[in-house]
Every structure is written in structure tokens, then in C-alpha cells.
């Protein structure tokens, strides 16, 4: 029976080593452990614990929930999936609802591109499954918030005059799908939708669209202090240069709003 | 013999579960299923089916073949490999030849960077293998289209005067490798090569080089309507902000060409 | 005993095929082989061998060590992990120390974003393990180079006046963590730290911060010829458009320094 035993041991060993390998693969595809960081860059581990997790996330100017939304949006906008499982769980732990995660991904399909949303779907699927999130917890595909018709007509006229003749396709879709459909979906509050959009723009260095969307965010209730904290928070997640490119643009928006409110 | 049977069953089960795991890994690394999208973001599934696949791809201003080239170029330029197997197959189904895929990847090594091309090679290798594409279906490493010597001399002089003294290396390579070699390779029509270049620039928000390359594309036969459709199409694949950053630049090119043709 | 033999053979076969699959997965996650390139794009293989490896890396204006640092920085800045194992090994072979790799990753956490650094940690961990790099070969988490107090006070005053009121968080962190801590870490020479920063900015098209950091790099000992070679080298790794966007900015820095030195 020795051979039988040997075979069984071999099978058991192989089985567990396969599982270990799978686990390793999952871990590598998803989250870097603190031990990994310490083994490669002890200083980075120190900055992560003391500064990023120990200080930045606890700063009073922006709630942990909003920091979670901003972080998840930045990761999806930059297509960085290795940390997304961890931060999707952080977001859900901080009170972001599964239906809001679902809307954030849908929103970023338009603002970051379909492939970014598809990558996020692949990650979110596993996170939702592990937390037993069912489809009925997600927002329905239809339903609509009220629209500020005057403001939207103004925007559509302005964009139409500038680009309607040369780019009729995207101009029409911008009105029909984005501003008369996506932005009105009730599953994500307009302020949160703005937060996602502004975070995605800062994360990818796309400052040209920032004045419009930062104004819209502040119209939707984002305070100047919160906007400043969004940039401070994102500096750690999208790099100092992107934050410093966003700062003069944001400052200009702040100053123009201060003048026009007098 | 029961133990033998149990062992064989165990072996068979392990073997199939290994295969299933490999299949899952492949699937996760490559394409997101429609069921995955519906499970995470039902609204996104609806937009994908009704708008992106149901409308955008069928718009008359740009052929399905050209939309495929633009989409593949954008994915490679942004290093987004999860959707690339699907869209390489779409491209081949829409009449893009394997030799043209090969040239697109080679072209983007220079316009998006070597690592993007290497990632694309890893994906294309499997797609080619699954379709039994053999090496003799690819274009040869040499051979040359005719060169517009006057236009190239003009370009080289202009760039040489501006940058030759400070950056002799890249200026020489731009002439020798790019414009007197890569662009003359017969495996991809100049209009398609321009389409790839313009799509990559839009996809990565690099509008500074757009005037030169959009003019070149239109010199190579791209119509204004097609250029407009490229931007509309790419809005979905690279995000609205990149499309909106490209629009004023493209509009300016259109207007200057309209004036100079009078 | 035939069944036993068959089982043992089956086990041995499965075991080796599992290992082969793991090897394939690793290879796909890490490096594209020369055979893969030749099978998909023979012309790209030719350019890689004759031009990139055969010429560019051997150009005299920049050492192989510095080219390695620039390449690794660009890959991390663009979050392109498929080629990173190969180029980390190239860097170590060219004399970059493990402690310097560790510092490069820590530095880029701030200049490219935490998720880029985390992805790099996951790759570097395996490279370090394969070369038996132990934690005591990495640089300590504290210790400090001397600070040019006058220059730093000048920078802090300038940034504080422009952004301190609107963005107190990031302005404080920029002083406390970046310029009075990270940049003074002795594990990476200031010239190398500048090289990493400038490479990351060029790699991601972030030219707005280039004047400050290219000047700092040249203050730290980078020559104009070396800066030109950095851009030529990076053209191949981050694409021609990013190189051409960096060139006018770098040329302007060169000219202003030439004037001010008279």
C-alpha cells in the first residue's frame, strides 16, 4: 500500500500546490501585500503606513466615502486594476453602495472609455460575488432625475455652434446619451457623478475639460475646500505632476466663481 | 480496486478543473462576457448593445474595416490588452489582413512605444495561432512604396533646423527609420497608416502632433467626414474628454485646408 | 502494476504540464520572446535587433546604466509591467544597485502615483527573489543628504504664494515629504533622481513640470548632450509623439541656461 499512500500524498500535495499557485496568481493580479512592499521598498512601506493611510485618508476636508469614490474613479480612469479590488472593498466598507459602484463604472465608460469600464467590470464582478451582491441591488437601466432644461439648452447650443457642423455624431450623442440620459440616472447623485468626472480628468491630465466639470461639480454642491482635498488626495494616487497641472486650472475656477458671486 | 478508481476520478477531476481554471484565467485576461457586464452594470450592457454595437459601428461615415483599424490602434496606444483579442478578431472578420495587423503593431512601436507593441505581439500571437495565420501571410521586412522626395525634404529641413543641433539622434532616426523606411513599407496603405497614427494621437490626448498627421491623413485620402466619424467612434473607446480635446484641433485643420483650397 | 505505472506517468505528465502552463503564464505576464515578435511582426523584430538593441543602447551620449534607469522609470510611469522584469534585470546587470531600484520605485510612487509603484513592487519582488537580493541590501528608511536651504526656501515661497491658500494640503506635503525628505534620501544620487523624474514626465507627456525638473537635473549634473540622448532613447520606449512634445520644452531650457551663463 505504500505506493497508494505515495500517490495520495502526491495528489494531495499537487492539489494544495495548485491552489497555492492560484492564490498567488490571484494575489499578484489583485493586491500587493504589505510584506511585498517592505521586501522591495521599506521606505515606501513607511510612507504608505504613516502618510497615505495614517494621514491623508483621515484629513477632515473630505469624507472617507468621497475619498473612496475619487480613488476608485482614478484607478479606473488610468486602467490600473492591480489595486482596484482592494479599493472597491474600501469603498463598499466606507458606505458607497454596490449600485453606486455600478453607476461609477457605467459613467466612466463614457468619460474614460469602454475598455476601462470593461476592465473594471471584470474586477467588480469578483468583488460583488465575494460580498454576495445580487443584481437587484444594482440600479435599474432606466429612470431619470429632473433636468435643468435652460442650462442644458445653453450647453447644447454652445457646443452645437462650435462643433455641430464638423462633428455631428459626437455632438448628438453628447446631448442624447450623456446630458439627457447618463447624467440623469438616479443611481448616483449628481455631486458624486461630478466627483467621478473631475477625478478622472485630474487622473489623466485632461485639464482642458476641467473648468466646465469643476464648475458643474461646485454647482452640484462640491465645496472649494473639498475640491482642494480631492487634488491633495489624488496627488498620491495619480502622481504629483497631474495634481500640479490641475491646481492652476482649479484656482482659476475658484477665483472666477468668487468674483461672479459678488 | 476502489482506491484506483477513486484516484483516477480524482485525477480526471483535477485535470478538468485545471483546464477550467486555465480557461477562466484566459477569459479574465482577454474578454469580458456580456453576462459579466450585466451582472455588474446592467445600464452599461444596455448602452453597449443599443448604442455602441447597435448604432455607432453601423454609422455610414466610416467603414466597419476602418472602425476596426481605429479601435485596434486605440487599444494598443493605450496598452489596454483585455479587449484586444476580441477586436483583433473583429478586425480580421471585417477584412483587415493579418499582414496589416502586423504592420499596425510595428507602426505603433514607433508612435506609441515599444512596450505597447510588445504587449500587442503577445495578444496577436494567440489570435493568429487560433486562426492558423502563418508567417508567410505577413508582409516581408523590406520593400518600399515611392517617396514624395520634395515633401520629405521639406519636412526634414524644417525639423532639422528646429531640433537638429540639440537632438541629433532622434532627428536622424525620424528621417532614416520613420519617413524613409517605416512609412514606405508596402504592407499597410499610407491612408491606413495615417488612420492608425491619428487614432493613437487622439487616444492618448497627444494633440500637439495632430495638425501634421491629420493633414497627412487627408493628403492620403481621408475625408473630413471620415475624420469626424473617427473622433465620434473613438469617443466611446478612449473617452469623451480625449474626443473633445481633438475636436478644436481637427476643426482648425479642416478650416485651414478649406481656405487654402480656394 | 500497469495501472500504478499509468497513474505515476499520468501524475508526472500532469505535474510537468502544470509547470509548463505556469511557465507560459509567467512568460506571458512578463516578457515577450524574440520568436513571438518574429511570428507576429518580422519587421518589428528586425527594428528591435538592428536599431533599438543594436544601435540606440550603444550610442555614446548616455551610459547603459543611465539608459537602464530611464527605461525602467518610463515603464513604471506608464504602468507597463510586461517588459519590466526584463528591464529590471538589464538595469541590475548594468550596475544599477537593488537599493537604487528600490528608491526609484519609492520616488515614482510620488511622481507617477501609488498604484504604479505597487505594480512595480509586485514585479521587482520576483526579480529580487530570483537574484537572492535580501532586505539588508536595500537602503534604510531614514538618513538624509544635505539640503540647499536657500533654493528650497525660494521654491517653497513661490509655490506657497501661488497655491498655499487654495491647496494647503498638497503644498505642505510637497515641502515636508518631497523636498525635505524624499529628495534627500541617500539611496539614490540626486542626478539619478532627476533622471527618473524627467523620464517619467516625458513618458507621460507631462511637459508642464519639465522646465523645473530639467533645470534641476542639469543643476544636478545632467549635461545637455545626455538630456538629448534621454529623449532620443525614450522615443523608442514611449513613442515619437511624447519625444517630440518634450523637445521644444527642453530646447527652451537649454537656450535659457546658455543665456544666463553668459
List key phrases describing it.
13 helices; 73% helix; AhpD-like; mainly alpha; globular; 262 residues; disordered N terminus; homotrimer
Model description:
Three copies of one chain form a homotrimer. With 262 residues, chain A is mostly helical. The first copy, chain A, has two domains: 2-26 and 61-145 and 185-260, Up-down Bundle (AhpD-like); 146-177. In chain A, 73% of the residues lie in helices and 0% in strands. The first copy, chain A, is built from 13 helices and no strands. At the B-C interface, helix 1, helix 6, helix 7 and helix 9 of B face helix 1, helix 2, helix 3, helix 12 and helix 13 of C.
Summarize the structure.
The structure is a homotrimer of 262-residue chains. With 262 residues, the first copy, chain A, is mainly alpha-helical.
Main sheet properties of chain A: none
Largest interface, C-beta within 8 A:
B-C, 58 and 57 residues
Order of helices and strands of chain A: HHHHHHHHHHHHH
Identify the CATH architecture of the largest domain in chain A: Up-down Bundle
What is the CATH homology-level superfamily of the largest domain in chain A? AhpD-like
**Total individual domains of chain A:** 2
Discrete helix count of chain A: 13
In which range does the helix fraction of chain A lie?
Answer: over 70%
Total DSSP E strands of chain A: 0
How would you summarize the topology of this molecule?
The structure is a homotrimer of 262-residue chains.
Chain A lengths: L1 H29 L3 H7 L1 H12 L10 H14 L6 H10 L4 H14 L2 H17 L18 H15 L4 H12 L10 H14 L6 H10 L4 H15 L1 H21 L2
Helix pairs in contact in A: 2-3, 4-5, 4-6, 4-10, 4-12, 5-7, 6-7, 6-10, 8-9, 10-11, 11-13, 12-13
Amino acid at each position: 500500500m505504500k505506493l497508494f499512500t505515495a500517490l495520495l500524498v502526491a495528489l494531495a500535495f499537487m492539489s494544495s500546490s495548485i491552489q497555492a499557485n492560484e492564490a498567488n496568481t490571484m494575489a499578484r493580479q489583485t493586491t500587493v501585500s504589505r510584506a511585498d512592499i517592505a521586501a522591495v521598498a521599506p521606505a515606501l512601506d513607511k510612507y504608505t503606513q504613516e502618510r497615505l493611510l495614517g494621514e491623508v485618508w483621515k484629513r477632515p476636508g473630505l469624507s472617507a466615502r468621497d475619498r473612496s469614490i475619487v480613488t476608485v474613479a482614478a484607478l479606473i480612469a488610468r486602467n490600473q486594476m492591480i489595486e482596484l479590488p482592494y479599493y472597491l472593498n474600501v469603498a463598499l466598507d466606507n458606505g458607497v453602495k454596490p449600485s453606486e459602484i455600478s453607476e461609477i463604472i457605467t459613467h466612466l465608460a463614457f468619460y474614460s472609455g469602454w475598455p476601462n469600464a470593461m476592465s473594471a467590470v471584470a474586477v467588480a464582478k469578483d468583488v460583488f460575488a465575494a460580498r454576495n451582491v445580487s443584481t437587484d441591488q444594482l440600479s435599474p437601466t432606466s429612470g431619470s432625475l429632473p433636468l435643468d432644461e435652460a442650462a442644458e439648452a445653453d450647453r447644447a447650443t454652445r457646443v452645437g455652434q462650435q462643433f455641430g457642423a464638423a462633428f455631428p455624431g459626437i455632438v448628438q450623442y453628447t446631448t442624447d446619451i450623456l446630458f439627457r440620459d447618463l447624467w440623469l440616472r438616479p443611481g448616483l447623485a449628481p455631486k458624486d457623478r461630478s466627483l467621478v468626472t473631475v477625478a478622472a480628468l485630474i487622473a489623466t491630465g485632461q485639464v482642458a475639460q476641467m473648468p466646465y466639470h469643476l464648475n458643474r461639480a461646485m454647482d452640484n454642491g462640491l465645496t472649494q475646500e473639498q475640491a482642494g482635498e480631492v487634488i491633495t488626495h489624488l496627488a498620491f494616487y495619480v502622481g504629483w505632476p497631474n495634481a500640479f497641472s490641475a491646481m492652476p486650472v482649479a484656482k482659476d475656477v475658484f477665483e472666477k466663481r468668487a468674483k461672479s458671486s459678488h
